[in-house]
């Protein structure tokens, strides 16, 4: 028997959209739970353990981003993907502040499935992880068994995507990693959207958290990419 690739909580108040998402995800062997409100979603998470949540930003009894914060507080390992009809930079930055990806409406259903698959691939640890030595660069230490990060001995709280980005930079040492490589290896984008600012957004989040504990550690090669100092 083939194991399901994961369980997805779909939170969407428009029944026709929720049905399309659920049918497509189930076709690709995901287990799917559907909620139409914030209240229903929180009740489902009390009883089950989804691997990812696909959240509409506009819900009848609340804001999908506030729901995402609540879900992340309860389940720090839960991957969050937002559905939004708004694509302004402020909206995107707001969604990515603590989420792992965002998709704008109207959307291509194949892209939704691909994004969910990619997010889970980079955020969900294997069922059994071998003991691995920590990754180190300067005063940074990444524990690949517990997915924890320390700088100068002090804990740094990162989202799964922030962790994946920092891990890729650490693995590449002092080399400058082109933006296209980061999108391909961290976000699993096969074709880079030319207008995408997701890398810049997450680099700014990492800098804010890491620079609070020491001198700047992430360097920028303008027009090329990013590396570690």
TrEMBL record:
<dbReference type="Pfam" id="PF00486">
    <property type="entry name" value="Trans_reg_C"/>
</dbReference>
<feature type="domain" description="Response regulatory">
    <location>
        <begin position="7"/>
        <end position="120"/>
    </location>
</feature>
<keyword id="KW-0597">Phosphoprotein</keyword>
<dbReference type="InterPro" id="IPR011006">
    <property type="entry name" value="CheY-like_superfamily"/>
</dbReference>
<dbReference type="InterPro" id="IPR001867">
    <property type="entry name" value="OmpR/PhoB-type_DNA-bd"/>
</dbReference>
<protein>
    <submittedName>
        <fullName>Response regulator transcription factor</fullName>
    </submittedName>
</protein>
<dbReference type="InterPro" id="IPR039420">
    <property type="entry name" value="WalR-like"/>
</dbReference>
<dbReference type="Pfam" id="PF00072">
    <property type="entry name" value="Response_reg"/>
</dbReference>
<dbReference type="InterPro" id="IPR001789">
    <property type="entry name" value="Sig_transdc_resp-reg_receiver"/>
</dbReference>
<dbReference type="InterPro" id="IPR036388">
    <property type="entry name" value="WH-like_DNA-bd_sf"/>
</dbReference>
<feature type="domain" description="OmpR/PhoB-type">
    <location>
        <begin position="132"/>
        <end position="229"/>
    </location>
</feature>
<feature type="modified residue" description="4-aspartylphosphate">
    <location>
        <position position="56"/>
    </location>
</feature>
<keyword id="KW-0238">DNA-binding</keyword>
<feature type="DNA-binding region" description="OmpR/PhoB-type">
    <location>
        <begin position="132"/>
        <end position="229"/>
    </location>
</feature>
């Amino acid at each position: 028997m083939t194991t399901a690739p994961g369980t997805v909580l779909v939170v969407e108040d428009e029944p026709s959209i929720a049905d399309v998402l659920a049918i497509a995800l189930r076709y690709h062997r995901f287990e799917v739970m559907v909620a139409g409100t914030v209240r229903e979603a929180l009740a489902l998470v009390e009883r089950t353990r989804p691997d990812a949540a696909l959240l509409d930003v506009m819900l009848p009894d609340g804001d999908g981003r506030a729901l995402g914060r609540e879900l992340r507080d309860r389940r720090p390992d839960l991957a969050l993907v937002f559905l939004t009809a708004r694509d302004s930079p402020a909206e995107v930055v707001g969604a990515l502040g603590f989420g792992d990806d965002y998709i704008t409406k109207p959307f291509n259903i194949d892209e939704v499935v691909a994004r969910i698959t990619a997010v889970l691939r980079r955020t969900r640890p294997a069922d059994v992880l071998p003991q691995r030595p920590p990754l180190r660069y300067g005063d940074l230490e990444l524990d690949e068994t517990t997915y924890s990060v320390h700088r100068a001995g002090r804990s740094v709280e990162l989202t799964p995507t922030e962790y994946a980005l920092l891990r890729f930079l650490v693995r590449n040492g002092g080399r400058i990693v082109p933006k296209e490589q980061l999108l391909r290896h961290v976000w699993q984008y096969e074709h880079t959207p030319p207008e995408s600012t997701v890398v810049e957004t997450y680099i700014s989040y990492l800098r804010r958290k890491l620079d609070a504990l020491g001198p700047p550690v992430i360097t920028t090669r303008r027009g090329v990419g990013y590396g570690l100092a």
